[in-house]
Here is the input.
Amino acid sequence: MKFKPLSALTLILFLALSNAGFSQIRDVKKQSQAPQPQAPVEQKQSPIELKHVTMNERKVQDPNHRDLKWKAPQIIQGRAEDSRKFLYFDGAGYPTQNKGLPSFTETIRFNKNDEDPVVELLNQKFETISETNLITDKTMLGADVKVTPIIVYFKKQPYLNINFIPIRKNPVSGTIERLVSFDFKISSKPSTNKDKSKSINQTFAGNSVLASGNWFKIGVTNDGIFKLTYSNLKSLGLDVDNINPANLRIYGNGGGMLPMANSVPRADDLVENPIVLVGGANNHFNFGDYVMFFGQGPNRWYYSPNDSSRPSFYHIVNNYSDTSYYFITADLGAGKRLTSQASANGASNTVTTFDDYAYHEGDLVNIMQSGRQWYGEPFDILSTYDFTFNFPNLVPNAKSYFYADAAANSWPSSSTFTFSCNSQSILSLIIPPNNPSFPANAAYDAYGLDSFVNNNSAIDINVSYANPGNAAAWLDFFEINVRRQLTFTGNQMLFRDSKSMGAGNITEFDIANANGNLQVWDVTDPTNVHQMTTSVVGSTMKFALHTDSLHEFMIFDPGGSFPATPSASGKIQNQNLHALAQKDYIIVSPPDYLTPANTLANFHHSNEGLSYV
Here is the structure.
């Protein structure tokens, strides 16, 4: 079990039409980027004006030389009882991970796309710091100033972001010193990122598929194979009676969030998905005809066998949407249809069990009323909650894995969350006391992983919190990994087997309780699904394929029940963001705020020459 503080020192700088405005919040995000730096303000003066100094504005003879102008310690303007002094130099930033220490940051052009940067600080000059009492965590300091270079991109061009804490502990005397001047030396070395050049040189579509034609939008909230009937399409607004069903197309990019990093590859435009058209005789879509397609919900599961801190399969909830959307048209010619994948010969191993999983995560409470981190059930009036899951045909005596995350704010005693499965205790999280003196944390977050054995298909998870008195506590989430026998149950069943993977492996999957009416689709790539060619021996369905990597499948009965019909958003307007010329500045605004958004855009255009959309 591990815990981590939810910091109270996250400072966000809000820039609008004024030079600067200041606000202090307590950050409870567990996985966040470093916050934007905020300048301190003098205790009895108005806020210090921030000014970004570019390379061209630096009036120095040597463009690689820097002088740090240290000043008297400043305080953060906020509530009087929360104010304390910080070491300060002109342009200092204060990211949360620095624990109150100032940070030097500069971004400069870097012309070597295919190489990694190396930054050295030469001719360093230091002076002794007398206000060492302002350094709350001296373990942050080393004998040398550690530079962290990061490549960032602006208009697809690489820039080097240099960041470091300009304070050290003298390796000889042990005295704490601050850096007052230095010279840069920037070089490069062969890149260790094999995908870097690929991501940088990605090509982009000139136009979006949504630029022309009639388009209709639907949404799904869970993974499944969905059915769209004549009535569904007609109610959506599609002129079903006057289309050629061969031209029906469905576009979508699967579920999950877009990557936070721009350098991570992703689909450039909407991708066409394969569909199954049942009916469509005489080039007409008739009553009784329908379409089937595989859709992914917004929340995703990922496989990471080398992370010992979490189960091999872990989930990520979409922070921005509870629905994944798909787009339908019949105006672009013949559409993509599901193709068959032949069963491989020469299977080297046989699979009769598989990995399954489930999670509970309720986004109910935002402790800070800010940021992306939300928590679930509060433990105030209630001290215990129960959650029930069903895993049919568990492998007898197989280990299951349980991971949980929770937060609490208690003082002066620690507090404990206890998790049990069918009355068997499986995990305890001990959360340390949170000292309310400044700088206080909003809460402490704890997480842990443990295994247990359970042979009951019905799994009841009980979560209880031992409140030491006047504490506040919240469940974040928990997740379960189990092993099940590969036996078909229900109308649709997703399955995958991590044990089948291996270089050169050909794996036969044997599914019990099956019949010839069932179909198996390989849904590993949701935009390129295939139907597996299967055989049935008795009540066992068989197929084989190469399993060098992890595959996921859906077995279902096309004559059985389907998930709820996708939600209908109706016809949408054409759009073509791809055709826009390159812009410096993008503003996304709801209609009610268009006027101030345009005012802001015009300000930046007039004063800084920034183009915008």
User: Anything to note?
Assistant: The chain has a mean pLDDT of 85. The longest helix spans residues 594-608. The helical segments are 196-200, 230-236, 594-608.
